[in-house]
Amino acid sequence: MVRLIPKDEKFYDLFIADGENLLEAARALESMVNNYDRLEERVTEIQALEKKGDQIDDEVARRMQKSFITPFDREDIHELVVHLDDVVDGIQATAETFTIYGITAPDDDVKQLVGLLSGQAVQLNEALNKLESKRDIVPHLQLVHELEHKADALSRAAIGRLFKGGMDPLDVIKLRDLYTVIEETIDAAEDAAEVIERILAKS
Questions:
Q1: Which of 12, 17, 108, 120 has the highest Cβ tally under 10 A?
Q2: Using an 8 Å Cβ cutoff, are 151 and 86 in contact?
Q3: What is the pLDDT of residue 59?
Q4: Would you list the DSSP string of 125-157?
């Protein structure tokens, strides 16, 4: 059957751009915690990536207004973009927390959590690059879930260690908040994966 009104395939390019921007932000955060130098400069770089992500999201919204037919449900497009944006927002919030709280150095738990987040970003980017073909996506989404489960266990254990005593109460609060921000960002990445799973189920 000939499609009289073609779908706007430009959406897929925007999803890919969103995924690549998210991955760049996650890698920038990972580099920040592993090197822990030039903090203000690194935070500024991540803030710029967050703004770039907002611009991509705005373009998706404009195209939804203009397009009669979208590649898949408008609600799913909206949910996907929202959760991808949540991840980048969380990356920015994590980076800013280091400077706002004056954290002298990230501990191993923070480095591991950020590494898991970066791994999720890799898998989401791969899934978004394959979204148009809808082939070989599921393994990437499964990895996003597995990384979230690892992060959940790591975060719980890390917070538990904070309250075993021997640490300044103010430092406990700072690190607990930092773990929480990273964990929420990791959860947002899993939320994005679940939207993609819903899109695949409907196709």
A1: 120
A2: no
A3: 95
A4: HHHHHTTTTT-S-HHHHHHHHHHHHHHHHHHHH
CA R_g for the chain: 18
pLDDT of 85-130, one tens digit each? 999 999 999 999 999 999 999 999 999 999 999 999 999 999 999 9
> pLDDT at position 7, please?
52
The verdict on residue 4 lying in a domain is: no
- CATH number, domain containing residue 25: 1.20.58.220
Token pair 């991840």 is found at 87
Number of domains in the chain: 1
Q: Which domain holds residue 168?
A: 10-202
pLDDT above 90: percentage of residues in the chain: 86
Residue 84 lies in a domain: yes
Residue 57 in domain? yes
CB-neighbour burial class of residue 68 (10 A; exposed 0-12, middle 13-18, buried 19+): exposed
